Amino acid sequence: MRSYRGAAEPVHGHSWRVVARLETSGLDEDGLAFDFVEIKRALDDLAGRLDHGEINRVPPFDVESPSTERVAAWFFDELAARLPSAPLAAVTLFEGPDCSATYRPGSE
What we know:
By secondary structure, the chain is α+β, with helices and mostly antiparallel strands. The chain has a single domain, classed as Tetrahydropterin Synthase, Chain A, CATH 3.30.479. Helices cover 28% and strands 19% of the residues. The chain has a 3-stranded antiparallel beta sheet, with helices on one face. The chain is elongated, with a radius of gyration of 15 Å. The two termini are 22 Å apart.
């Protein structure tokens, strides 16, 4: 972590879990609002960019600190760009069973 004000930690890994929250107020003629297969494929592809590697070498985290909050925002932005018609509301990133961050644009 760059510019972290807490105690320094050695390089370590996380078994992250990503949850994408999609919301809709309407369904199509088949009773669907989005395609889970397409969403899962996009999430798996994004996770694959970070899996089993050093996140500090993966853009944009080669420049920005890879905080859980920032990685959640990255997942949101990347997923929204890949699936512009998906009603994406938030992304929650768990770095452990009791520790997570949720990114929801426009929220403070």
